[in-house]
């Protein structure tokens, strides 16, 4: 079977949603190590680059494949939001990105649990849209 851009985009979306869902479950159950990890690595340029690049790639994949989903309007909106988030993270610069991650890491454990639950809900929505 020949791999096409659509195939790659669908696979990327599927595995990214599974990863994000698993990440959300871990955050919900045990948030401290995850947010501690974010706090420790916030200074790495690679971390900032990946935060931007993954949002651009995920958003582009969502937009490219939205017509093949159960809820194309919602997926299109999510694609634009993902690309906009990547743009914002790119434009705020390194120092503000580091401060943003430090702020998120310092939030209360209850907020971390809510973030985990929202992350799981997002992953479930994406997986539902594509299956």
From TrEMBL:
Report the superkingdom from the record: Bacteria
Q: Where is the chain membrane-spanning?
A: 12-38, 45-65, 71-92, 104-130
**Which UniProt keywords are listed?**
Membrane, Transmembrane, Transmembrane helix
Q: What protein does this entry describe?
A: Uncharacterized protein
**Species of the source:** Thalassotalea litorea
